[in-house]
Amino acid sequence: GAGVSQSPSNKVTEKGKDVELRCDPISGHTALYWYRQSLGQGLEFLIYFQGNSAPDKSGLPSDRFSAERTGGSVSTLTIQRTQQEDSAVYLCASSLDTGYNQPQHFGDGTRLSIL
Amino acid sequence: AQSVSQHNHHVILSEAASLELGCNYSYGGTVNLFWYVQYPGQHLQLLLKYFSGDPLVKGIKGFEAEFIKSKFSFNLRKPSVQWSDTAEYFCAVTLNQGGKLIFGQGTELSVKP
Predict the structure, then answer these.
(1) Residue B78 contacts residue B66 (beta carbons within 8 Å)
(2) From residue A60, how far is each of A47, A87, B84, B97 by CA, in Å?
(3) B105 CB neighbour count, 10 Å cutoff
(4) What residue of B is the nearest CA neighbor of A34?
(5) pLDDT by residue (tens digit) across A69-100?
(6) Considering only CB atoms, which chain A residues are within 8 Å of B34?
(7) I need a surface site. Which of A103, B62, B73, B76 has the fewest CB within 10 A?
(8) Beta-carbon neighbour count of residue B67 at 10 Å?
(9) Is B57 within 8 Å of B77 (Cβ atoms)?
């Protein structure tokens, strides 16, 4: 079956521009997570959604970052007024739910480069 | 704050050598433990996981890990590595009832043929 799908796979943009990254989770998975993988910082949690509950935004690094999940499926991560330190690989993962015994399945990521 | 530490940043081994990658976490409550692997050019994949029960867990491709609660450790082992094990390995935890993964910094493993 299809895994977690992310688009675009690569994105190059100029500093100050806004970007949108998309994640399509595995069908039937109610939990969706965003992480960031960057040199020097490793893998960092950003935000997660579980069903209709309020998202856990505790990992978002600044108010320039936001995410939404429409219809309980596809999610979009938006970064406004991008800065060079936003350059990283943005990973999306999904799981059946947030229960402790549900492993997270990762997409291939979006490599974001800010010039 | 809760954290995960992986002691080795880069490990270089010859084929057939034994492997042990260290992982320690800092959290006094219930944790769920994971090892993920990222092969070159591929996405993160789950190697193995521990939730409860037998502290020695076996995963895919001959990997195993042992949870030692008193040491807050979850070290990954493989008796004999292969060139195809070349990858980056991440230890991670979720707290209590699950949710977000807290990752270690990763260990890059290079296996020489």
Answers:
(1) no
(2) 6, 15, 35, 21
(3) 17
(4) B100
(5) 988 799 999 999 999 999 999 999 999 877 77
(6) 103
(7) B62
(8) 20
(9) no
